[in-house]
């Protein structure tokens, strides 16, 4: 059983996990959530702009949106992060100081916006075109009809896909460590990696992986819940009525008939 003891000691050393736990909670988890949430918010805003440009009738808006989407969806995430983080490092230092933290968020935002833009575009185009035509017939402008009627319905339909995209951003946030974050800015993966290098044990990395699972698994089930809820609808099916109930509802007895029935 030596091999089993070696596996347990290498991957599931409880003492090594307990030692790194405060740093994972206080630094790694906090920074991972900050990076992921900030990148998602910026990505949603940019993605909505890209989606509206992508469905525009103007080629001057549609073609740049297509090129933007193709570039940031086609490049590997790590390549985009390195290009943004190293290419704009000098500019970032004059604005944000020596920390590459904002550039990591920017890179993830650009990647996320390309995917989120396609998600929004698909959701908006899935709405029946007759609704837009009905709004125009009522005197609404194109922009007002899209803003008040079409876009809200499209967003509601793509909520599960948006949650899936947030899960992807949480996992991609581990790539930001390539930019060389400060000690106080390191996310879950970098904290676990540093502890694993110092101790020569992989248990801190396993602990970091558990934190990723704690974030992503509930979100995955939330996606399934939203998907089932939107497919089945909010109203529960009511049991069918009996034939007698239908007859009574359609032909209720009048007071005259009741009186006649009692006299006989």
From TrEMBL:
GO BP, sorted A to Z: amino acid transport
- List the record's Gene Ontology CC terms alphabetically: ATP-binding cassette (ABC) transporter complex
Q: Which Pfam families match?
A: BPD_transp_1
UniProt keyword DNA repair present: no
Q: Which residues form the ABC transmembrane type-1 domain?
A: 29-223
Q: Where in the cell is it found?
A: Cell membrane
Keywords associated with the record:
Amino-acid transport, Cell membrane, Membrane, Transmembrane, Transmembrane helix, Transport
- GO function term, MF aspect, one: transmembrane transporter activity
Q: How does it sit in the membrane?
A: Multi-pass membrane protein
Name the InterPro entries on file: AA_ABC_transptr_permease_3TM, ArtM/GltK/GlnP/TcyL/YhdX-like, MetI-like, MetI-like_sf
- Keyword Transmembrane helix applies: yes
| TM spans (from-to) | 33-55, 67-89, 101-120, 166-184, 204-226
What protein family is recorded? Belongs to the binding-protein-dependent transport system permease family. HisMQ subfamily.
What is the protein's given name? Answer: Amino acid ABC transporter membrane protein, PAAT family
Tell me the organism: Mycetocola miduiensis
According to the entry, what is the taxonomic lineage of the organism? Bacteria, Bacillati, Actinomycetota, Actinomycetes, Micrococcales
